[in-house]
Write a structure and sequence with these properties.
single chain, 510 residues, alpha/beta, Rossmann fold, Transcription Regulator spoIIAA, six-stranded mixed β-sheet, four-stranded parallel β-sheet, globular, binds iron/sulfur cluster, rSAM_sf, rSAM_horseshoe, Radical SAM protein, catalytic activity, iron-sulfur cluster binding
């Protein structure tokens, strides 16, 4: 059993390996908490950006905390969740801000709140508890299942609104009046006032861009990488994607010089982050500048139809050994339904580029289980994978469709578990050892689907699952006991894709 001293020692070791950590004092303290462990949280550009933005203020010190790798060690040693920078108990901070990326992180939010000795539900917190704010990628789609745990939710792009919320919080001494007043702000969702309704997604001014990470650490998924966005949003309209153009008005590219100005001299690895990094009109200029300065470069999203010799040569020179692209649908029929406009010829070209530039691997990501998908679609994919594997080494990732709110596929049912498992087995059997196959768990994808389509009922389910150990059976029982039905759609019925519908190539001109 670890002692409090040992838990704090571990955190100090992590801090020792960081560059860019901000230590300061200020009258008001915000705990910025990531409901997954450090390794995951420090790879989040949004989380790091809020840390940087809040610490630019003289009146605020913002310190980080994370879901511990093993929360039981905290429980057994009676160690309250504490901030990394000053080891202040999170429960003693004025404001606790969570960044929520995935549905299953609701468990992490409850765990962190309880480790901080704070009631998990806003309704059980009185005037004197810290203000609990939730923001993060999930708010672009469906924040309702997180609603009962939050006092305030920032919808969408939060780097400006968080300052407004904290300014107002400092000036109020009446929590209810504060909540009533901030509820009127666009982009702010106060679950206790707005109930199960969807609020508009906030958009930060272009002058706030680009988001970039102040801290570099070797202990993340993206080891020792400086993260910077080269554009915000996306101008395309893929039917499964929350970041499509209707969410925040299309892509706002950032000028190359502004992207490059964020990179500190000591950063040897740079990750370009964004919904559509390869769509930036000057992506080659940015890559060229980074690679010529001797840095390794990674991109968070590559579209197969944007890649060519020059692009891949730069990536390879920048240290990339694997080319990762999404094909998004098992067959051309399914890719048309996904509306991503990726065709076999684009993927074949990617395989040739991997081979020609001596890269090691082509990794393809595939969504399966779109409405109307059959084994024939899987067979088309299998034949094509065999063809690609004759060009270069191929790895295939398959994930069941989890229909999200704020997309045309909102409301699409999750495919029957047995049917999905049959498809996955069929692919394994046919592709054998020729392709390295990784499939996301059907059962956990189903839970994600239920939460992402739900409302406050899924907060009840999440709490019941949490109280019963948060394993699959606990979740299954909790969803069965608490599911009330489908929450309202976020986009008009007319914009939704009907099962089997193939819509025109509206983006052919891009
Ligand atoms: S999947 Fe990619 S290209 Fe399609 S809308 Fe989303 S971010 Fe844009």
């Amino acid at each position: 059993m670890a002692t409090s001293y040992e838990l704090k020692q571990h955190v100090e070791t992590l801090l020792d390996d960081e560059r860019g950590t901000i230590f300061k004092e200020a009258p008001h303290r915000v705990a910025l908490v990531y409901p997954s462990p450090y390794r995951v949280g420090m790879s989040s550009l949004g989380f790091q950006t809020i840390y940087r933005v809040l610490n630019q203020r003289e009146d605020i010190v913002c310190e980080r905390s994370f879901l511990p790798d093993d929360p039981d060690l905290y429980r057994q040693s009676n160690t309250p969740l504490f901030t990394y920078e000053s080891e202040t108990p999170v429960g003693d901070c004025d404001v606790i801000a969570f960044s929520l990326s995935y549905e299953l992180e609701l468990i992490g939010i409850m765990t962190c709140l309880e480790l901080a000795a704070i009631p998990v539900r806003a309704a059980d917190r009185g005037e004197n508890w810290p203000l609990v704010i939730i923001g993060g990628p999930i708010t672009f789609s469906n924040p309702l299942p997180a609603g009962p745990f939050a006092d305030v939710i920032v919808m969408g792009e939060g780097e400006e609104l968080i300052n407004v919320l904290i300014d107002w919080w400092k000036d109020y001494d009446d929590r209810e009046r504060y909540l009533r007043d901030v509820a009127a702000l666009p982009g702010v969702y106060v679950p206790s006032i707005h109930g199960e309704t969807f609020r508009t997604v906030a958009q930060a001014r272009d002058t706030c861009l680009p988001a970039y990470s102040p801290i570099i650490t070797p202990h993340t998924e993206l080891s020792s990488m400086h993260l910077v966005e080269n554009g915000r949003g996306c101008h395309r309209g893929c039917s499964f994607c929350v970041m499509r153009r209707t969410t925040n008005g299309g892509m706002r590219p950032v000028a190359p010089e502004r992207v490059l100005a964020t990179v500190p001299d000591y950063a040897t690895r740079v990750g370009l982050v964004g919904a559509a990094t390869s769509d930036h009109p000057k992506i080659l200029d940015i890559l060229c500048a980074l690679v010529d300065s001797g840095r390794e470069v990674g991109l968070s999203s590559l579209r197969a139809d944007r890649l060519n010799d020059d692009f891949i040569a730069l990536l390879a020179k920048g240290g990339a050994r694997t080319l990762t692209v999404a094909s998004d649908g098992s067959s051309q029929r399914m890719r048309d339904l996904a509306k991503k406009h990726i065709k076999e010829k684009h993927l074949r070209r990617c395989a040739e580029l991997v081979r020609d530039h001596n890269m090691k691997l082509l990794k393809l990501y595939m969504v399966i289980g779109y409405p109307g998908e059959t084994l024939d679609d899987m067979d088309e994919m299998i034949d094509f994978m065999l063809e690609l594997s004759s060009i270069c080494k191929v790895a295939l990732g398959m994930s069941p469709l989890v229909a999200k709110k704020n997309t045309p596929l909102d409301g699409s049912p999750f495919e029957d578990h047995k049917s999905l498992e049959t498809k996955i087995k069929h692919v394994h059997k046919k592709l054998g050892r020729k392709v390295d196959i990784r499939a996301t768990s059907v059962r956990w994808s189903w839970i994600e689907h239920e939460i992402s389509q739900g409302g406050f009922d899924m907060a009840d389910a999440a709490e019941a699952a949490y109280r019963n150990g948060a394993g699959y059976s606990a979740w299954k029982r909790a969803i069965r006991d608490h599911k009330k039905g489908i929450t309202p759609l976020r986009i008009p019925e007319s914009e939704r894709l009907q099962p089997g519908a193939i819509l025109p190539d509206e983006l052919a001109s891009i």
